[in-house]
Structure formats: structure tokens, C-alpha cells
Amino acid sequence: MRNPFLACAAVVLTAAALAACGSSADGNDPEAAGAQRPAASGPAAPGPSGTPATEPTTPPTEEPSAPGASAPAATAEGPKTPVDEITPATGTFTKKQKEYLKDRVPKGMDPAAVLQTGQETCDKLRYLVKADRDTAVGAIVTGEIPDAKDAVAGLCTQHQALVDEAAYGYPDGKHAGKKLRPGVYRSASPTTDCSWQIEGAGGKELASGASDTGKSRKITIPDSAVTFTSTGCYAWLPEGAAG
């Protein structure tokens, strides 16, 4: 079940996050040091000496895609442009940007457009983590922010902790066998129709519960758990040492 907060966040990002958060003019944002963002539109702004800045130019961004949308640049099939041939129409890519673009640029596609997809993922994470960190991690757990792992590794490493935590989380659904990790978990952005059930060997119920408050709840998955089923809770995140 998609989190309605994320849909609202996509709209807010258009006017707020990308305008305010997306700017790194103060140079204090880790993304500013690790990634050279393509210009939104038009020619690159002049540098201190009057010469054009070396930033690649990309088409204007009308509105960031919703967190649940797939990233076409990352999933497009067919032959990819060799990394040594990946160059923007103007300017240059940083080393990290080229690493992110490796094996991701379909033949004939503007690499700056592919890069923009990853940078939009970073923008979404940056906005969500300021609004509610658990929702940001939950969006990675559920896959509503696709390509988060690669985008963070290459373009916004300050969000690596979100990806690391998400690796130990559970989205809604049924989980069994080796996928189960004993520990305490909290629900992230649950709906008012959140329920869960933990079963052991032979289908024996070990724990179950439901919540209609929309507030986070905590559960414990014991060592003896065989299956864990969640509905309407969105995602469960590890509370402390969960794996």
C-alpha cells in the first residue's frame, strides 16, 4: 500500500524541496562537494573569471516523479553507452557521476537525463528525511523510492545510513524462512488499518495485533518465528540491534 505522505511530498518537492533544498549555494551540503549538478535549463552560469561554468546542461525539470514511479533510465533495456563515451552536451561529469552512470545510459540517450533521475532520488530522500526520517527509510524498504541504493552510493552519500537501515526492514506482505531476522521493530507511517501476525512452527501463532491509530507500534520477532505477515503497516524498521 502506497504511503499518501509520499504522494504529497512529490508535490511539495516541486516548489519547496527542489527550490530550497536543491540549491547548494552555501557549499555546506555534502551533495555540493560530491556531485556536480546539471543546470536546470539554459547555458551554464558564468564563473568568477567570466568563463562558463563546467556544469552539464539538461532539460528543465517540470516536476519530480512520485516516489513510487519507476526510473526509466535505470531500468531501460538494450545496449548501454560505454563509460568512456559518456559525456554531457556541455561541461564535464565528476568521477562519482560517471561511476553512477556506468552501465545505466542506453545508447542514444542524453546521459545528463539519466543523471537527473538519480539526483531527483537524492532530492526526494533529502526532503523526506527532514520531514520524517522513518518515512524516508520506509520508502526505501517498500521500493517506493527506486534506485535509492545506487543513487545514494554515487550521488548523495550522506544518506547511506538510510539505505543501511532499510536493508533490515520489512515492507507489508508475508515474510518467511531465512528472510526473518529476530529483533524489535517499529512500524513506519502505518495506516489506520495496520495489522500483523507472527507464526512459529506448524502455524502456531506467536504474536498478533492491530492498530487503527495511525501511530507507530513496536513488535518483537522471536528466534522461533517462521513467518511474519503485515498489512496496512507500510514498513517495519529495526529498533536497535535487529540484525
From TrEMBL:
Ranges where the record places region Disordered: 22-98
Signal peptide: 1-19
Origin superkingdom: Bacteria
Keywords: Signal
Start-end of Low complexity biased regions: 30-56, 63-79
Protein name, as recorded: Lipoprotein
Organism whose genome encodes this protein: Streptomyces rubiginosohelvolus
